[in-house]
Amino acid sequence: MTYVVTDACIRCKYMDCVEVCPVDCFYEGENMLVINPNECIDCGVCEPECPAEAILPDTENGLEKWLELNKTYSEEWPNVTQKGDVPADADAWKGVEGKIEHFSAEPGSGS
Ligand code: SF4
Ligand code: F3S
Q: What is the pTM of this model?
């Protein structure tokens, strides 16, 4: 089992999650983060930290595609361990449905 970042993170990218992860297993894309499922120790501390409620345990139904996306991009994007700049319009994207349309495969800067 692992935790996964879902589409609720897209364009919100608050990054409160990276500050609490004890094993630094978040990876940064241009407009969202992902978790490396092989590194996550399942501690669950990041889940309540996310203002967008984007982090879920993979035991919840229907998360297979998000687990796959977290796995794929955590191998391509840079590791991030510190909170960086939050998008200026993050709050406007919080809770918006169907954000997968806005997913960017481009890597973020990492930190
Ligand atoms: Fe990190 Fe724990 Fe969240 Fe996994 S569940 S990503 S180890 S904080
Ligand atoms: Fe994304 Fe939430 Fe972290 S919006 S960057 S999963 S705090």
A: 0.97
How many C-beta atoms lie closer than 10 Å to residue 82's C-beta? 10
Residue 40 Cβ inside 6 Å of ligand 1? The answer reads yes
Residue matched to tokens 């992902």? 34
Q: Which ligand is nearest to the CA of 17?
A: 2
Helix, coil or strand: residue 29: strand
- CATH fold for domain 3-81: Alpha-Beta Plaits (3.30.70)
* Residue with CA closest to ligand 1 atom 6: 40
For 51-63, write each residue's pLDDT tens digit.
999 999 999 999 9
Residue 42 beta carbon below 6 angstroms from any ligand 1 atom: yes
